[in-house]
Amino acid sequence: MHPIQAVIDDIESLPPGETLLYTKTAAKYGITLTERHIPPTREIVQNFASVIAKEPVSKSWVTRFINRHSIHLILADSGDKYCLYFDLLHSKINQYQIDPRYTYNMDEKGFLISVIGRLKRIFILACICADGSALLLSLIYEAANKGI
Question: 71 near 46, Cβ under 8 Å?
Answer without folding.
Answer: no
